[in-house]
Amino acid sequence: MTMETVFICQSDALEEGGKGVRFSVMAGSDEATGFVIRYAGGVHAYLNRCAHVPVELDWNPGEFLESSGLYIMCATHGAIYEPQTGHCSGGPCRGSRLRKLAVTEVDGKVIWTPDDYVRPVLA
């Protein structure tokens, strides 16, 4: 199944180690959010759902990285995830990972390619 790409934001909306951009998705049959951040010069996107318990990660909208800017952190459980892989390297879900979403940057835009499980919300 081929999905069309979805515009998420302008590239300059994401600062290295700064706030992320949230966007609405359908995860299976559930409404949810995805998010994209800039880390190590690239863009990385995930389903906004902790691998331990399915709660959103950000403590304030768009605030996914902990204070050093080196890890994504779950505001509820304190689990820390590697921004480039989504792998949990500390906390109650150690060894698990976030669900990565396919994003690219094209002509100053961040573009998401949905998959069979995480899809756009239909209007």
UniProtKB/TrEMBL annotation:
Keywords: 2Fe-2S, Iron, Iron-sulfur, Metal-binding. It comes from the Bacteria. Residues 6-112 form the Rieske domain. InterPro entries: Rieske_2Fe-2S (IPR017941), Rieske_2Fe-2S_sf (IPR036922). The keyword Iron-sulfur applies. This is Rieske 2Fe-2S domain-containing protein. It comes from Undibacterium curvum. The lineage of its organism: Bacteria, Pseudomonadati, Pseudomonadota, Betaproteobacteria, Burkholderiales.
